[in-house]
Specification:
Length: 440
């Protein structure tokens, strides 16, 4: 396993007093998705004596975050369930709002008042920015983080955003995460060293010998802006393809090794659309046939461990298998079964690989900037490919931060379906109590 960094010489940070949780609601009604909702039956919870703290959700008026169903149950967004679990386990105040509240706070310069106590004293507060499917708009994440930077000067170290701005940018931009996974593969033992190639879209194309590649866009999620295309169908790619001499016109062949084929756009010109940043970039990756079929979603949380990195180490709490139906555009999910990996791989292989990648990310020198949320946990999206020898190999496809990951609790957890939420809540609460540091 990666070697833990040297202990910090800095003084301990005081614990946090308050979490202001602000969620950007999904467009799809919460009661129509099995990937985000926790169905809560008050009578059952009262009779069986579990998760009594969920009752608070019934009195909250949060758009598409709590839905009152006709059968007497409630559909509660997993993010709110997690925050209510944090509140129940710790001496920390938690206020829950949706994005329209944040719009008013920023417009009327009221956000700082939400981080003060009854007597006007500044509370050590965390502004928890939460979104799961669509990137927030009105206000955009960029404008929110800009306001947070200003409030830092008012509150000093008593106010911060979570996830931090650098990590939120890196996750949305994707490319930094891909390079980190590439770095880990290069320094891993042979069994963990497989990685599909990526062309990042600058200079000569790294995949020009591939007849088919997978096009992806930054600032995108949930399988949107992912296309399998032939080599000649370049669309928005900005890398340059070298044309073989044999394909050049006869007059141009003499003394020429190759030339750069024209692309649809200059590699210096990014594309723009209505994302939080306003700027997007297309890149492409080696096509792995299994990518069309299924993916393993590995949920990892940290727990206290004196031998672990910064006194914590990861453990796996759940694994889902998901498959995307191209015709219906629906994502099916269920708990991992042993036969999903047979014959050459086992659950143990998948678990060891996942923990290796997770701890390697936490051991990076930039981990507390670009991967800070992994101090709580993450969802690693793992896929299977065949190498040149025909052997099945695991590789990390995406690092999905825990605040915005779909948990698939309805399909992969037994009753009361809150296990993943509570696992993340427990780890997050411990970090709040131990003095999670402020990171830009």
């Amino acid at each position: 396993m990666p070697v833990p960094p040297a202990p910090s010489l800095q003084a301990p940070t005081p614990s946090w007093d308050k979490v202001v949780w602000v969620s950007f609601p999904d467009k799809r009604p919460l009661d129509q998705t099995a990937t985000l909702a926790i169905q809560y039956f008050p009578d059952d919870h009262e009779s069986l004596g579990h998760d009594a703290w969920l009752a608070e959700a019934r009195v909250l008026d949060l758009r598409n975050t709590v839905i009152d169903a006709e059968d007497g149950s409630y559909y509660v967004h997993q993010g709110l369930v997690t925050m209510l679990a944090v509140k129940s386990r710790n001496q920390i105040a938690v206020d829950a709002y949706t994005w329209d509240w944040l719009t008013r706070q920023l417009r009327e310069s009221l956000l700082s008042s939400s981080c003060r106590g009854e007597n006007g004293e500044a509370l050590r507060s965390v502004l928890f920015l939460h979104w799961t499917t669509d990137e927030p708009t009105n206000p955009t994440l960029d404008s929110v983080y800009s306001a947070v930077r200003l409030l830092k000067h008012i509150h000093g170290t008593a106010f911060r955003a979570y996830p931090n701005e650098s990590e939120a940018w890196q996750e949305r931009a994707k490319l930094g995460d891909i390079r980190a996974l590439d770095d880990i593969a290069r320094s891993s033992p042979p069994e963990f060293s497989y990685r599909p190639k990526t062309c990042f879209g600058h200079g000569p194309c790294a995949l020009q010998e591939d007849s088919i590649t997978v096009h992806k866009r930054t600032h995108s999620g949930c399988a949107t802006h992912v296309h399998i295309r032939k080599q000649r169908d370049r669309q928005q790619l900005t890398c340059k393809v070298e044309m073989p001499v044999s394909k050049l016109p006869p007059k141009q062949r003499k003394g020429r090794k190759s030339m750069l084929a024209k692309t649809n756009k200059s590699s210096k010109d990014p594309t723009y659309d209505a994302t939080s940043s306003g700027q997007t970039h297309w890149f492409h990756q080696e096509f792995v046939p299994a990518l069309r079929d299924y993916e393993f979603r590995v949920f990892i949380v940290t727990e206290r461990d004196e031998q672990g990195i910064r006194g914590r180490s990861g453990r796996i709490v759940a694994i889902a298998k998901t498959a995307f139906n191209q015709e219906t555009q629906a994502l099916a999910s269920r708990e991992l079964l042993p036969e999903d990996l047979e014959p050459s791989l086992t659950r143990s292989h998948l678990e060891r690989f996942s923990i290796w990648v997770f701890e390697s990310l936490r051991a990076r020198t930039d981990s507390m900037v670009f991967f800070e949320s992994l101090e709580v946990g993450t969802r690693l999206d793992i896929r299977v490919a065949e190498d040149r020898m025909g052997e099945k190999r695991l590789f990390g496809n995406e690092i999905t931060r825990w605040p915005g990951a779909h948990y698939f609790s309805h399909n992969i957890c037994s009753e009361p379906k809150t296990q993943i939420c509570k696992a993340f809540a427990h780890a997050f609460g411990e970090l709040l109590q131990s003095g999670m540091r402020d990171v830009f």
